Amino acid sequence: MKTSVAVVLSTAFIALGASAFPTFKRSTPTGPNGEPYIPGKWFDRFFMIVGENMDIWDVESQSTFANLWKDAPNGRVLANYYGVTHPSQPNYFDHIAATTFGWNSDSVVNITGSESFSIVDLLEEKGISWAGYAEDYPITQGCYIPYAPECANGTQVPHSYVRKHFPFVSFETIYTNETRCNKLYNANMFWKHLEEGVLPQFVYFIPNLLNDGHDTNASYFANYIEKTWIDTFHYNDYFNAGALNYISLDESGNTTGFNTVPGDNNNHIYAALWGSAVTNRNTYDKYDFTRYNHSSITATLEMNWWGKTGLLGRNDTYAPVFALPYDGTD
Ligand SMILES: *[C@@H]1O[C@H](CO)[C@@H](O)[C@H](O)[C@H]1NC(C)=O
Ligand SMILES: *[C@@H]1O[C@H](CO)[C@@H](O)[C@H](O)[C@H]1NC(C)=O
Ligand SMILES: *[C@@H]1O[C@H](CO)[C@@H](O)[C@H](O)[C@H]1NC(C)=O
Ligand SMILES: *[C@@H]1O[C@H](CO)[C@@H](O)[C@H](O)[C@H]1NC(C)=O
Ligand SMILES: *[C@@H]1O[C@H](CO)[C@@H](O)[C@H](O)[C@H]1NC(C)=O
Ligand SMILES: *[C@@H]1O[C@H](CO)[C@@H](O)[C@H](O)[C@H]1NC(C)=O
Ligand SMILES: *[C@@H]1O[C@H](CO)[C@@H](O)[C@H](O)[C@H]1NC(C)=O
User: Fold this and answer.
1) Does the structure show a pLDDT above 70 at 242?
2) Domain extents for the chain?
3) pLDDT of 268-287, one tens digit each?
4) How confident is the model at residue 327 (pLDDT cuts 50, 70, 90)?
5) Ligand 6 within 6 A of 293 CB?
6) Tell me, which fold does domain 11-317 have in CATH?
């Protein structure tokens, strides 16, 4: 942990005086099916994008990531953010369900019965629009059930979409319900919805195995973010207005000594927030050293739209809500 925080700090003060803290006017947008936005306490839209399996030092050493939160509107680094387990899949479960269900593998599993209660049920109940978008998802819209698309000879299409990174298709309350399945899209639809200004209020975006760094490395991931996203992240007013935007990894890269060796081996990962929901009063507010993990995502969504946490009755009960108007307790 010491090393990682030092990496963050060493680049920290370059940002001094770098940017003003812009404010955005909230509009009254709608989701892809014309659903009116339900206003939240701090934000009307949450966007998240997730990379794969890299240590914090590896990601921070890429200038794209070292600068992303410095240059983004109201950007902030979460310098003490952790994945919840290894390997990948249970981290993605935690994103939407605030628990790994004790699961520790990437193999195909269906989360059924009351266990399959997730943030999606809460959002649906309140009429808050949501969607999952995945690059190389083999269909345009709906639930694709297999693990991965296959080549004619039966092998997995390399560097493509994989089920373990797209949790929705594993949850019974979603895969048995066509209405909900139709909120899962190929990523091309994200760009269409962005262009048309009809993004839903909860946006979950998963790159393919090349772009997320899984089959590649941190510089490939950085290059992808730079080429594909930075323009939207930094300059798109629609994207940033009334928004809380999030980027992180599912888990760290070095799994040796997980939970026995301090630091990256405890799953310490890069994470950043930006968008109009983040209020930085000064440059120091651009650093948050609160200990967060993936369960803080559901906790934050709950506090934003329901005014309390723990609605899933899992780790969302204890996880700290992202400090948006920063309370200055670092
Ligand atoms: C999970 O559910 C899907 C859809 O109903 C089904 O096709 C698949 O066989 C199930 N997989 C397991 C491992 O239970
Ligand atoms: C299966 O087909 C793919 C795509 O044509 C090819 O890249 C791969 O090498 C093949 N694998 C085997 C074991 O034949
Ligand atoms: C499917 O999901 C929709 C949207 O949440 C809900 O209105 C409907 O009742 C669900 N259908 C079933 C059979 O659970
Ligand atoms: C990362 O991958 C790229 C190719 O995508 C390669 O050119 C580069 O050498 C790799 N970097 C490291 C540090 O392995
Ligand atoms: C992974 O962590 C172990 C335990 O701290 C350490 O000995 C090893 O050098 C690390 N490997 C890499 C590639 O960072
Ligand atoms: C909290 O998360 C851990 C790991 O995901 C899980 O084992 C535990 O059961 C969760 N606690 C609750 C109350 O859901
Ligand atoms: C995630 O954070 C919450 C709140 O601090 C905690 O209850 C939970 O145990 C953490 N999960 C893991 C796997 O450490």
Assistant:
1) yes
2) 11-317
3) 999 999 999 999 988 889 99
4) low
5) no
6) Alkaline Phosphatase, subunit A (3.40.720)
- Residue 255: exposure state from Cβ atoms within 10 A (0-12, 13-18, ≥19): middle
Residues 174, 155: Cα–Cα separation, whole Å: 27
Ligand 3 pocket test, pick from 177, 178, 183 with the greatest ligand atom count within 8 Å of Cβ, gives 177
Mutate to test the pocket of ligand 5, among 54, 256, 265 (most ligand atoms within 8 A of CB): 256
Query: End-to-end distance of the chain based on CA atoms, in angstroms?
Result: 16
Q: Is the CB–ligand 1 distance for residue 175 below 6 Å?
A: yes
Nearest protein Cα to ligand 7, atom 11: 84
Please tell me the pTM assigned to this model: 0.92
Q: Above 50 in pLDDT, residue 3?
A: no
- CA-to-CA distance for 197 and 54, rounded, in angstroms? 32
Cα 154 from Cα 239, distance rounded (Å): 40
DSSP class of 30: B
Q: How far apart are CA 22 and CA 11, in angstroms?
A: 22
85 with 104: CB under 8 angstroms? yes
Find the residues whose C-beta lies inside 6 A of ligand 4: 216-217, 219-220
CA distances from 205 to 33, 51, 167, 263, 317 (A): 18, 10, 11, 28, 25
Question: What are the tokens at 109?
Answer: 């599993």
Ligand nearest to the backbone CA of 157: 2
**How do residues 31-77 score in pLDDT, each as one tens digit?**
999 999 999 999 999 999 999 999 999 999 999 999 999 999 899 99
